[in-house]
Amino acid sequence: MRSTATSKTEQKRSGVAAVEMAFVFPLFMLMVLGIVEFGRYMMVGQLVTNSAREGARMAISGYFTEDEVRADIEAFVTESVGIESEQVVIEIETESGNTLDDAEAKELITVTVALRFVDVTFLPFLGEEAPSGGEDYLYGLRDTQDETKWITGLSSMRKE
Fold first, then answer.
1. Partners of 92 in beta bridges
2. For 35, which of 7, 93, 97, 135 is 20 to 30 Å away at the CA?
3. Average pLDDT for residues 109-136, to the nearest whole number?
C-alpha cells in the first residue's frame, strides 16, 4: 500500500518547472524571432536579386523600354515581398551613361534594386520612436534598426 504523505524532497521542488520556464522562455523566444528575421532577410535578398537579374535580362534584349523594365521589376518586388511600390528603388545604368534605348550592342547594363530592411521586417515596431516622456525598453534593439540599412540586388549583363 502506498503512503499518501509526500516526501520532503517533493515538497521542496514544487514550482521549479515554472521558475525555470520563466528564465528560459524569453531567451528561447528571442532566438526563434532572430531565426525568423534572418530567414526573412535571406528570402527578401534572394527576391531582390532575382528581380534585378530578370530586369537586366529584359534590358539587354532590346525589346523593352526603360519604363517597361522598371514597371516589371517593381511589380515583381511588390507582389513577392509585399511592400508598396514607393519603397522600391530601381536604378538602370549603362556603361556609356546613355539611356537604355540608346545603348550600343555589347555595352554593359547594370540593374540595381534596393529596399530598406525596416520596410520588410516582421518586427516593424523596432523601427518606431519611443512615445515622448515614456520609457523605451527596446531602445537597444531600435538603435540597430536605422533607415540606412538596405537589401540590395545587383545584376550586370552586356546588351545583345
1. 111
2. 135
3. 72
Cell 521586417 -> residue? 121
Q: What is the pLDDT of residues 33-67, one digit of tens each?
A: 889 989 999 999 999 999 999 999 999 998 999 99
Cα distance between residue 84 and residue 79, in whole Å: 9
Q: Quote the CA–CA distance of 36 and 42 in Å, as a whole number.
A: 10
Cell of 4: 499518501
Q: Which residues contact 50 (CB under 8 A, 6 or more apart)?
A: 76, 153
Q: What Rg value do the Cα atoms of the chain yield, rounded?
A: 26
H or E, element range at 156: strand 150-158
140 pLDDT band, cuts 50/70/90, is very low
Q: Which class for 58: exposed (0-12), middle (13-18), buried (19 or more C-beta within 10 A)?
A: buried
Q: How is the beta sheet containing 150-158 ordered, strand by strand?
A: 89-94, 108-116, 150-158
Distance, in Å, from the CA atom of 122 to the CA atom of 36, rounded to the nearest integer, reads 8
